[in-house]
Every structure is written in structure tokens, then in C-alpha cells.
Amino acid sequence: MTKKRLIKMVMLGIKQFKNPYYQGFAAQVAFYFLMSIVPIIIVLSQLLGVFSISLDTLDDFIKQYVSGDVADAILEMLSYQSTSGMNIVLIVIALWAASRAEFCLMRITNFTLTGGKSTGNGYFKERIRAVKTMVLTLFTLTFALIILVYGELILGVMAKTLAATIGVTYQVDVFWLVLRYPVTMILYFLMVSYNYYVLPSTKLSFRSIVPGSLFASVGMLAVTLGYKVYTGYIANYDILYGSMASVVAVMMWFYFLAWALGLGILCNKVWADTKSVTQ
User: Fold this and answer.
1) Is residue 84's pLDDT more than 50?
2) What GO cellular component entries does it have (predicted)?
3) pTM, whole model, 2 decimals?
4) Position 81 pLDDT exceeds 60
């Protein structure tokens, strides 16, 4: 990327974000994130149950990247215990509720990529598409958790095969310890990329959404790690908000994550708009 193109991208981004439509969008997305998290857990618990994976698997990741009131609030939500024969109607209702965050992101994505000309193809069409997107997102999340849970077992099988065929051996536990974090980051990037690919009403090439996906992935990771330090060593929400401290902490975290996602969408837009600068 040339310096001239980078400056042009920043200027175009600032110009577009002056539009009043963006005022409060991060707060709106954060609100729907919070409203969607329990329905997401309800459906996710059913999917993970098929592969004999407990929701406790998520505890390690949450405790590793989130601290303080945020972790306590989310872990309390994860204490939900699913029933074995959940009514299909309840699952549909949960998916409808969980898709509200996706719907909100769809509208801001379409508004950004069309230069403010459109927010989608109508409420009901986009709402149904948001449900389908949420279903596929949950399947990708389940796949990612399967890889992370059974990754060491898979490497163990590969190690035995390599030892039997070409005599190559390695320490599975050490190799997985080194490989686990890069695999996590790749899965995280692919999940963000998938959403950026399906959110627009007009389909884009995968190549065109890579810049924004990289930006958003790094930004969300930086926000999470930075907020962990902030809540762990600097902020004390208990003083101001009392018993509501955990809810406020989660909302603030979701708010900053929403900004990272929004800026990633904008990054794709200004990247496409400045393509001629390098030609």
C-alpha cells in the first residue's frame, strides 16, 4: 500500500463517517449483541451437544482474553444448562432473537458499501437473511470449537501415521501448544471474513473483503486485550454502577467491538474506492 493511497483512505473514511447515520450505530450494535448472547448460547449448546462438547469449553478462552466484571457476567450467562429435547419452536425463536445483531450489521454494511443509497432489500427479506446468516455463523463457530477441542487428538493420530510410514515423530502436546494460537487466529479471521462476505445484499469477491477482515480481526483482538488490561487494572465500575457494573462492563466491551467491526466494513469500502490510486 502506498502512502498516497493510505492518506486517501483515511480522508474518505473520515468524510463518510460524518454522515449522521453512523451516530450511535456502535451503541445500537452493542445493545443487540447483549440481547443476542443468551439466544446464541441456547442454540450453540444444542449444536455442541451433537459433538459431545460442553459449553465449559468456552470458559478457557473467556478467562484468557477477558477479565474482571466482563468475564464474570459472560461466564454467568454460560451457566445455562440446555435440555435434551428442546422444542424446535424455541430454537426458531432463539435464532430470530439472536439474528438481531446480524440484521443491524447488515444495514450498516449495505449503507456503507452503497455510499448511503441503501440499507438492504427491505425489512422482512433482510431479517430472514439475517436468521440464515446467524445459523451459518453458529455452524462456523461450532466448527472452530471442534478444531480447538479435538485438535490435539487429530495431531496425535497424524503423529502415529507419520511415525508408522516415514519414521517422523514429534511431541504432540508441545506442537499443539505452539500451533493452537495461530490456528485460533486463523479461525477468528475466517469467521469475520465470512460475515463480511455474506452481510452485503450485493455479493462481493472474497479478495475485496480481505483488507477489512484483517483490520477488524486485529482491531477486535486489540480491543479485547486492551479492555482486559483496562478493566483489570484501571477501571472500577463498581464505584459508579454498583450491582449493574457487570452489565455496563460487557456493554462497553461490545461497544468497542462494534466500532472495530464498523471500521472494518468502512476499510473495505475505502479500499475499493482508492484502487485507482495505485494504478
Assistant:
1) no
2) plasma membrane
3) 0.76
4) no
